[in-house]
Design a protein that fits this description.
By secondary structure, this protein is α/β, with parallel strands linked by helices. Helix content is 41%, strand content 17%. The structure holds nicotinamide-adenine-dinucleotide (NAD) and thymidine-5'-diphosphate (TYD).
Length: 377
């Protein structure tokens, strides 16, 4: 494998994947294809942007002609597809943008890869189209108490690993898709197109579904960076509903590590779920964030608890997500490198130490600077 296009590389997870591949594989040419929407920020890649094996191309994945020409020009061997509209609240307000980018954009990449690789003497041999998806396509899980035990209770994954959970059911790879939000419906649709391209044309595809990620460079519309910044500035923390919803959190670098392993060793046409067996109620995470920010800023721990403000619930708010990643652990030997407490401490520190990164986003300056630079090329 030599020439790899990573789509959405200027976003949160994509930037960690680009960084990992550029640093770990100097023999690969890494092409970051990104439209630079509001969520794309090239400041996320400042530390690697002048590496000789890295190149940025500003492009919309829906631009079929542009994507096809780029694949020919760079003789692409592998595609790692992360570009997407990714925020549930935005999808509730503007579902069309989600269908356009997540469904039509993925289709445009699939068709371009198929046509380009079919034109080569070796065909699909040694090629790979890796699609990054979400656990949200499986819908929502119930919270159940086995024999009246108050959750979270200790339970056992199919790998035999013990962990804390809020229910007895988990998302496994064979589960039926039941998306509820326009975001998850668009991701589910894109997953179906990827599998259809394997089953119909033999395109060498892989799909992974990951749980909620957290860590540096996440856009501050998502729970963790938004709340860290609000606590710092003593702004209200808008908790949807009662804060009882459960999410399964994974440190973003561990997701990038999983993508590396699966890209190189995963079985074609297979699906892998990625998660850290790390379920948290929103309100409990929020309390951890308040205590951590307060402590690191030298305030009395917990003094900002009164920032918690319960607001109207998100429409169709999924109750619980919980990934069973036993298959990935068993078959490819991946497991998370960080415990949650360690990951959250690192994450809060990073946001507090990188206030300039945050201010550039909240002021909107980041878009102006990079858009001007690349539009004028
Ligand atoms: P993000 O919103 O931070 O970044 C998305 C990136 O895609 C941005 O750089 C944006 O500019 C780019 N993009 C958007 N539309 C584009 C288009 N039409 N053409 C080209 N580029 C475009 O998203 P993220 O949180 O890093 O998520 C990346 C992928 O991982 C998504 O596919 C998402 O569904 C999936 N995922 C995310 C999570 C999570 O917790 N964030 C969990 C599981 C899966
Ligand atoms: P989010 O980070 O948007 O991720 P997702 O919707 O993909 O899970 O939200 C995580 C959880 O936090 C989710 O249950 C919604 C909740 N939430 C709030 O309570 N308030 C907020 O301001 C945000 C952004 C999210």
């Amino acid at each position: 494998m030599k020439n790899i296009i990573i789509t959405g590389g200027a976003g949160f997870i994509g930037s960690h994947v680009v960084r990992l591949f550029v640093n770990k594989y100097p023999e690969y040419n890494i092409i970051n294809l990104d439209k630079l929407t509001y969520a794309g920020n090239l400041a996320n890649l400042k530390d690697i942007e002048s590496q000789p094996n890295y190149r940025f191309v500003k492009m919309d994945i829906c631009d079929f002609d542009g994507v096809y020409a780029l694949m020919q020009e760079c003789k692409v061997d592998g595609i790692i597809h992360l570009a997407a509209e990714s925020h549930v609240d935005r999808s509730i307000k503007d579902p069309f943008t989600f269908a356009r980018t997540n469904v039509m954009g993925t289709l445009s990449l699939l068709q371009a890869a198929k046509l380009y690789w079919e034109s080569l003497p070796e065909g699909f041999e040694g090629k790979r189209f890796y699609h990054i998806s979400t656990d949200e396509v499986y819908g929502a899980l119930e919270m159940t108490d086995p024999e009246g035990v108050e959750p979270p209770f200790t339970t056992k994954a199919s790998s035999g690993q013990h962990h804390l959970a809020y229910g007895t059911k988990f998302f496994t790879e064979d589960l039926k898709y039941q998306p509820h939000s326009p975001y998850s419906a668009s991701k589910a649709s894109s997953d179906h197109f990827v599998r259809a391209f394997h089953d119909t044309y033999g395109l060498p595809t892989i799909v992974t579904n990951c749980s909620n990620n957290y860590g540096p460079y996440q856009f501050p519309e998502k729970l963790i960076p938004l709340f860290i910044n609000n606590i710092r500035h003593r702004k209200p923390l808008p908790v949807y509903g009662k804060g009882e919803n459960v999410r399964d959190w994974l440190y973003v670098v561990d997701h990038a590590r999983a993508i590396d392993v699966i890209f190189h060793k995963g079985t074609i046409a297979d699906t892998y779920n990625i998660g850290g067996f790390n379920e948290w109620k929103n309100i409990d995470i929020i309390k951890v964030l308040i205590n951590t920010v307060d402590r690191l800023l030298g305030r009395a721990e917990g003094e900002d608890m009164d920032l918690i403000t319960y607001v109207t619930d998100r429409a169709g708010h999924d109750l619980r997500y919980a990934i069973d990643s036993s298959k990935l652990q068993r078959e490819l030997g991946w497991e998370p490198s960080l415990q949650f407490e360690e990951g959250i401490e690192k994450t809060v520190k990073w946001y507090l130490e990188n206030q300039e990164w945050m201010d550039n986003i909240t002021s909107g300056d980041y878009m102006k600077y990079y858009s001007d630079m690349y539009d004028n090329r």
